[in-house]
Amino acid sequence: MTVLVTGGAGYIGSHTVVELQSAGYEVVVADDLSNAKADVIDRIETITGKRPVFYKIDCADKAALRGVFENHPIDAVIHFAGFKAVGESVQKPLQYYRNNLDSTMTLMEVMEEFDCKKFVFSSSATVYGPNNPYPYKEEMPAIQSSSPYGWTKVMIERILTDYVTAHPDCCAILLRYFNPIGSHESGLLGDDPNGIPNNLMPYIGRVAAGKLEKLTIFGDDYPTPDGTCQRDYLHVVDLAVGHLKALEYAREHEGVEAVNLGTGNGVSVMELVHAFEKANNITLSYVVGPRRDGDLPAFWADASKAQILLGWKATHSVEDMCRSAWDFARNSK
Ligand code: UDP
């Protein structure tokens, strides 16, 4: 079975390629390297002993994508490629809508041309928006978001749902991620964004490595037990395994399913900072600053559907996440 992984050189994509190859899948990666480094493909080869086929292409480039499908018998697609910075999407909404929607629809058109019917989509808990109570359940109305980035996820979920309604022999799994952190046990893959990180764990990693002076905790006056925001952090390797399970499900089924991938537990920013310090025997410099626009006080997953439908459950602890995050951050240049 051959799987096309778009965005396969990125943080979650690369971990998923490792799990797919380890499970015996043939993997073709398409990535334009706009937010990833080419040596990730070498690192995947080092870990798995097998080099995935790699195309440096933009998924909105239909001719290039056709070439990939002509060269390989693609049975299924896992689609990660897309812009993902929430704050930047507020500044550049048109760029986000154009890129994320165009690339997905182009990919779907080419899949249709080549009779490829299995689609696993990288969605996000952001689709639950600011008004649903947590823990979030898949049947809640996912028609809101607080950023153009999040709206692209809502819209793509809609497009895939409408497509599968019109083509009921297809299968689309919409994986709604909570907050993936940590890295592969080899220390070779991890979250290494260009520029100053927006997300909490890569920022912590750079402070621990002495590359950034201190962490700013965005607000400690939220209505939560310690006043800092709570999120559902999950290990990226658990998340990658979730894609494998989703693919196995899609191979056997038709229709569309949204599935949360989270642990079901809320952890606060302050708890994560202290867990990182304890797991790695490090002291982190931090200050408490003002709230960040658009942040919700707390949310986490109801993770029961993933277990029932896909047979998936997160297995790694917060300590595992913190230790592996540091193993990667201390080694990255
Ligand atoms: N956060 C923080 N300082 C930072 C980055 C993030 O305090 O430098 C907080 C942020 O307010 C949120 C949590 O960490 O409560 C997770 O933020 P992240 O951007 O990683 O993920 P999000 O949940 O926003 O997708």
Description:
The protein has a domain at 2-182 and 233-262 and 301-314: NAD(P)-binding Rossmann-like Domain (Rossmann fold). The radius of gyration is 19 Å and the shape is globular. The chain is 41% helix and 17% strand. The protein starts with a strand and ends with a helix. It has 333 residues and is an alpha/beta fold. It has 11 helices and 13 strands. The longest helix is centred in the N-terminal third of the chain and has 21 residues, at 93-113. It has helices at 11-22, 39-48, 62-71, 86-91, 93-113, 148-166, 200-208, 236-252, 269-280, 304-310, 318-331, and strands at 2-6, 26-30, 53-55, 74-79, 118-124, 171-177, 179-181, 215-218, 230-231, 233-235, 255-261, 267-268, 286-289. Uridine-5'-diphosphate binds next to helix 7 and strand 8.
State the gist of this model.
The chain is α/β, with parallel strands linked by helices and 333 residues long. The protein is 41% helix and 17% strand. Strand 1, helix 1 and strand 2 form a beta-alpha-beta unit.
